[in-house]
Amino acid sequence: MEQISGFDVVESSLRVRKYNRTTMVLNGTVIIKKEMDNTFVSVTDLYHSALGNQQWNHYPMKLPSKGSCEFLYSIYDDYYQYIKEIVNLPKKGECPIKPREFHVYDMVFPSKAIPPVLPKGLWKAIVTTKVEGVERTRIELILKAYADTFF
């Protein structure tokens, strides 16, 4: 996971590290520096590299654009069991989202959270947050998928 832009709005130090011989975990802190409401619209684009050689093809799956509060609510609705251990995460219904730090400690990526229909290979998700059409933040996530397990 790498933050590309928007360090004045959000700052992320999330990193993947090896936990033991077979498990990778997510660790780090996300600092929300500005109050965020639904005017901050998140857009997600997916790219796939079937051979894992970073030759990316835009994947035609469309994920809906959502305001920051709606985006957080949908994560709570669909993935609460996976995010409940995140410390100081904004509560569902809290809008606008106030400036804060939230912490992720040794979080194992939940392979069940990813639809089983996605093909194996290397995946890149680019999450861009815009205000009135102007990019404010950009974060890239890269996942490796093989068989039915994601890392």
How many structural units, i.e. domains? 1
How would you sum up the major sheet? 7 strands, antiparallel
- Using the coordinates shown, work out and report the CATH topology: Ganglioside M2 Activator Protein, Chain: A
The proportion of residues in beta strands is over 45%
How many strand elements? Answer: 11
List the uncertain runs: none
**Average of pLDDT:** 86
Question: What string, H for helix and E for strand, traces the elements in order?
Answer: EEEEEEEHEEEE
> Class by helix and strand content?
mainly beta
- Overall 3D form: globular
Number of helices: 1
Distance between the termini: 12 Å
Quaternary structure of the protein? single chain
Descriptive labels:
single chain, 151 residues, DUF1091, AGAP008958-PA-like protein
Structural commentary:
Helices cover 11% and strands 46% of the residues. It has one domain (2-150): Distorted Sandwich (Ganglioside M2 Activator Protein, Chain: A). It contains one helix and eleven strands; from the N terminus they run βββββββαββββ. Strands 1, 5, 6, 7, 9, 10 and 11 form a seven-stranded antiparallel beta sheet that branches. Strands 2, 3, 4 and 8 form a four-stranded antiparallel beta sheet that branches. The chain has one helix spanning 68-83; strands spanning 2-5, 10-12, 15-18, 24-32, 40-49, 57-58, 66-67, 100-108, 121-131, 134-146, 149-150. With 151 residues, the protein is mainly beta. The termini are close together. The longest helix has 16 residues, at 68-83.
